[in-house]
Design goal:
Penicillin binding protein transpeptidase fold; 13 helices; mainly alpha; elongated
Length: 314
């Protein structure tokens, strides 16, 4: 029998002895009476011992329960360490997610370079609001080139001399003041990039421009540019601007009207004839003088155009 079994048996025996009914009195049987008293005393002693043991056991159990509650209310060192490891795992996973997102973004940018022509065309106006290069007057092409990029047909997307000159000016000032942007650079900037003036964005602009020149010919680039820039008055693209300002198709624009539209992109709101007619005329005349300087028109043609009033639809 195990110690636990022996204790239980002693308790049962003591309880049975204590609860026995008193024995009938027998005259002269003093030995029996003494024996019963001894057994009773032993039973009581066993019960007292059992009570003490039970009390100690109960106290021990209570202590353990209190310790358990304390552990629940205050995490031990192992739980704290596990929490710290879990937070570290979450931080590492977050870093991995950011790195994967950056890698995916780089992958998309790489694909954009490879398929630059398709990406440009996806961002152009719908066919109903689009005009092809053969329907754009020569004077419109000459005017925009004279104002925006006179070396357009000479460079490969980037005017190196202008970039170096702008870089030196920017280094002296400590910030980007000159952009030296070609028509190709302005096209990719308008379609793909933000307006932030940082060297990182400028490098991305140069790379996009070089790939655009490698995938598209000059007339395509000029066509994309004229159909995507903002001409003020809420008009995006040459066709919308032509009908919006003059109520006619781009192919019907006069030299004076072409010059006015070519002067819009640099400051569309300020040069809008609806907002400031005199400013629009002044800007038009600057464009005509630039066309003379670039050799696209002669002085007589420029003076005749300057004398023409701007007949607007509104």
């Amino acid at each position: 029998m195990t110690d636990k079994g022996k204790k239980i048996a002693a308790l049962l025996l003591a309880a049975a002895v204590i609860n026995l009914p008193p024995a009938p009195a027998v005259a002269g049987n003093t030995d029996t009476d003494q024996a019963v008293e001894k057994i009773t005393d032993i039973g009581k002693a066993v019960i007292d011992m059992a009570g003490d043991a039970a009390g100690k056991a109960g106290a021990s159990i209570k202590d353990k329960m209190n310790q358990g509650d304390a552990k629940k209310s205050a995490p031990d060192a192992r739980e704290k360490a596990e929490d710290a490891r879990q937070r570290n795992r979450e931080r590492i996973q977050s870093q991995r997610d950011d790195e994967e997102e950056a890698e995916l973004d780089m992958f998309h940018r790489f694909l954009r370079l490879i398929f630059i022509r398709q990406h440009i065309q996806e961002r152009l106006p719908q066919p109903s609001r689009y005009v092809t290069i053969d329907a754009i007057p020569d004077n419109m092409r000459y005017a925009i080139i004279a104002m925006e990029d006179r070396k357009f047909y000479e460079h490969h997307g980037v005017d190196i001399e202008a970039v170096v000159r702008a870089f030196l000016v920017n280094m002296q000032s400590g910030e980007i003041e000159q952009g030296a942007s070609t028509i190709t650079q302005q096209l990719v900037k308008n379609l793909f990039l933000t307006g932030e003036r940082t060297y990182t964005r400028k490098v991305e602009e140069l790379v996009l421009s070089i790939f655009t020149e490698a995938r598209c010919d000059k007339d395509e680039i000029l066509e994309y540019y004229l159909n995507s820039i903002y001409y003020g008055g809420g008009y995006y693209g040459l066709k919308d601007a032509s009908y919006g300002y003059f109520g006619k198709a781009p192919s019907e624009l006069s030299l004076s009207e072409c010059a006015m539209l070519a002067g819009m992109p640099q400051a569309p709101s300020a040069n809008s004839p609806y907002k400031d007619y005199d400013a629009a005329v002044k800007r038009r005349n600057i464009v005509l003088k630039s066309m003379v300087a670039a050799g696209y028109i002669d002085k007589v043609a420029a003076e005749e155009a300057m004398a023409e009033p701007l007949i607007l639809t509104q």
